[in-house]
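cron nightly-structures :: item 1 of 1
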Amino acid sequence: MKYSLIIIFSLFSLHCLAFLPDPVPRFFRDSVNIRRQELFSKEYEHKKLDESYQKEAMIAMSYFPELKGTRIEFVRKDIKTTMASRPALGFLFQKKAKRTYRIFIDNNVKNEKGLLLSDVPFNAQVGIIGHELAHIVDYKEKTAGGIILTGIGYLFHPFRKKLERKVDEITIAHGLGHQVKEFSEYVLKDDRVSEKYKKYKRKIYYKPKQLSTLMSGYSIY
């Protein structure tokens, strides 16, 4: 079923609604219209992330209260996409609660095949960071063997498509639907992004209209 997981995450969102900030259509860097001052709690500060993305990460993290206390490191690295997340090495020998997760930020676009996070609008930056945090939510529920199988499955487009769309649904259920939709729109419209990369994004991820359809299934939007 095309949107089969929406029912599951709709129930999840109802359960967590009392603990999540309200969805906000647009966040701004200089005039952040956050409705709750506690979103800037030190609990959401990432000491290994420089100031350039600190606000975006804190806002996105505030929509994932279940990740409080989770070890998350942001790492700048030359990767093939704007951002990516995965468990740090050693997860095979650690309990779920002891794992460290790394969110990679691309620092070098080769042959104009991607898009740097720094080139993305603030609101969309919140969206893609939220998407990566949703990956960590998915990882945290898996055994070490499950994570290995996920890594193997990700090599194949059908599995990758299913997983990335599931993660988009998690992001929407947490209240960052506007932001992940803006990121999708920006990638597909930006002239600096190659058509090959845009084609890949359209093939694997939900398109903006599909994201809007998913959002309409939640009372929080």
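cron nightly-structures :: done
The beta strands are 71-77, 83-87, 100-106.
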